[in-house]
Amino acid sequence: MLRSCAANACHRYISYLEEQKLAAKTTVKRKNYQDGEEIENLKKKFKQIAKDIASLTRSADELAQKAEDHGDMTLIASSNALLRTAKEKTTQLDNLKKTIASLECP
């Protein structure tokens, strides 16, 4: 009687451990998938910010050239504002790069 109870308890415990292993594996797979999705979204955001920086810099250069040609100081102010925004976005880009690196290499 005692042996059969102990055997049943042992089998139930082993099946419980197997269920826990399976649950842990599915949780890890789900987490890896979510991290992969997050990394892809961050990479898309990274590319978009890089495009924005290039566009802002190009526009600032064009405004500076126009200001030089026409002698208009308001265009220089606009150019400087665009360059300041590009610099802020560069800081965002660096932070985003660090975030992506930390997620890729745990």
UniProtKB/TrEMBL annotation:
It comes from the Eukaryota. This is Uncharacterized protein.
